[in-house]
Specification:
Blueprint: H1 11-26, H2 44-49, H3 63-73, H4 76-112, H5 119-130, E1 139-145, E2 155-161, E3 165-169, E4 178-181, E5 185-192, E6 195-200, E7 203-208, H6 212-225
Antiparallel strand pairs: 1-2, 1-7, 2-3, 3-4, 5-6, 6-7
Helix pairs in contact: 1-4, 1-5
Organism: Vireo altiloquus (Black-whiskered vireo)
Biased composition (Pro residues): 234-244
Domain FERM: 1-233
Length: 271
Amino acid sequence: MVLRGYVPTSEETLQTLAALRLQSLNSDFSTHAPFPRLEELFPPHVLHARLPPLPHRPPSKCRGARLRAGLLAGGLWGQALAKQRAERDQRLRGRLREEGASTMAAIVEKWKLLQGMGRPEAMAAYVALVREWPGFGSTLFDVDLHTSPVGPGPQRLWLGIGAKAVSLYKPGEPEPLDSFCYGRISSFGASDSSTFRLSVEDRDLLFETSQVDEIAQLLNTYLASAGAQRLPRPQEPPTSPPTSEPTVLPQGLCPVARPWQHRPPVGSSHS
C-alpha cells in the first residue's frame, strides 16, 4: 500500500520507511547485502512527479491546418518531431535515473543510522510510522463521485471504509474531505453494476466504481460488527438473520488490488 501511494505522508517519512524495510530484510548495512530495486522500497510515482510535465499542444480546429500538419508529418517535419521526442524521452529517462540515485543514497544513509536494530523493532517502527496517518486501518477504493459535497462532480476520490466511519479523501491528501459515522448513514446499495449509492441523512452520494459488491459487503460487515441491522440493497429481498459465526474484520490497510470476496449465501460457511 505504501509503494502504491495509498499512505499519504511526506517524502522524508517514505525514505525512513524504506530504510526500515531494508533493516528488516538485511539487518545492518553492508555493501555485500542483497539490495532490492528502488521501486520495491519507494513509491515510483513520487519520482515521476519531480519530472517536468510534457508540453501540451491544443488540437487544431481548422481542417486545412490539420491536413497540412498531416502532410508535413509524413515528411521531413515528421522526422524532426520524432527526433525531438526521442531526445526529450532520453532526457527524462536520464533525469529519472538521477532522481532515483539521489533517493537511494538518502535511503542508504538512513539505513546506516539503524545499526543494531533487530527485525521485530524495525517492523514495529515501520507500522508505528504508517499508523500516524488518521486513515490507517481503512480499506481504500478508487471512486468517481458524481454528487460531491465539496464541488461539482465527477471527482476522483478515495472512499475509505473503516471500523467507525466512511471517509472521502482527495488522493494523496492525509485529511479527509468529509467523514460520516455509521449512525448518519440511512441507506446504501447498488444503483447499477458500476454505481454505488450512499445516503447520508438528507443527501445521496453516487460513486462510479468497479467494486460495488466489495464496498457493499464491507459496509455490511462493519454495520453488523457495530450491532446495527443490515440494510437491504435496492431490489434485494431481505435475507434471514446472519449466522452466529463471528465476523472477521480487516486488519490494517487492506489492499485495493485484493478486495473482499462476495458474501456467501446465508447458511454457508464463511471463507
